[in-house]
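re the bet — no i am not wrong, look at it urself. input seq straight from the record:
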Amino acid sequence: MELNRQLIWKLTVIGLILLVLWRVISEPDTISRVLQYTFQLLTPVIMGIAIALLLNTVLSYMEERFSLKRYQGLLIVYVTFIGLLVISAMTLFPRIYSSVASLIEELPFYIRQLDGFVGQLNAFLQDYNETIAQTIDFKRFEERYSGWVQTAVLSSVSYVSSFTMTLINFLIGIVISIYLLKDKEVFARMFKRLLYALFPVATAKTTIDIFQEMDYIFKRYIIGKSLDCLIIGVMAVIGLLIIGAPYALLLGVIIGILNFIPYVGPLLGMIPAFIITYFYDPFTAVLVLVFIFLLQQFDGLWLGPKILGDSVGITPFWVITSIIIGGSLFGLVGMFISVPVTAMIQVILSRLIDYRLSRKNLNELL
């Protein structure tokens, strides 16, 4: 009887895997849409869990250190957390908003500058080699970058709407995190009871160990990377102010935030800084490019390893691969969360592989 149940269970799992693979192969867009919709639906919950995981360490420390009751610890932690967010918003957002508004107002100036550059390049090529000039077809190029400008303006409106939705999800996430931390022992006990009820004792213990390791990796990476990005963002603002770059605060904030994405983020932060500065002064733009490059080298070679160490334990190949997959599925948010999620998946796979190898007595050979 037990054998038949195991056989039915295995056949059911295999059937579900084959069904998912068939759907992925036959209709890849459907799977992508389902994943995106699911992610958007669960975004407040995911944010709430992430906030709870980050603040749980502070809450536990304060309760143990000062013998506080739960509601007292929650009050102090969240008043401090929200207070820091409000102070940062009141200090930075008005200046960033004014910089963005000024940038949009000066967009026609950038277009005229680009028109002049394209016209000079076209005249030069006409004198140098008319065949090359005709091959490039500058009229079609002008139509294209005009379309790019219109797309950029429309995208900025979309980004404002997306930011508003993200802010709402974040506020809901804060509320969810409060309830999670308030009854964290209850949730932990429910989770353990469920594991021990569904799985053998050894499997349940291993699963709990895996989740504890994933929690440790997540908190260490997020806290360390946030500190790293804050330092780089402040250094970027100071350096850009010294160089005399326009919109130094806005560009520094962009560089600091995008630095959260390993390898790709520094490049994404470097491009807008160079382009915006180039229209004001090409020489200053070169200085900005060199400064950001040196800053990212400092971060990659010294500051990042000093703060993070080997916090996630995954190779650069898998880091870049995870960023590409996360970005293609969930956009910029997917790029931000791809590394810690990949590290968690690696923990699960590593434990599973070790278990399977131990069953075959191959751990010492491989």
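see?? The radius of gyration is 26 Å. told u. also The mean pLDDT is 79. so pay up
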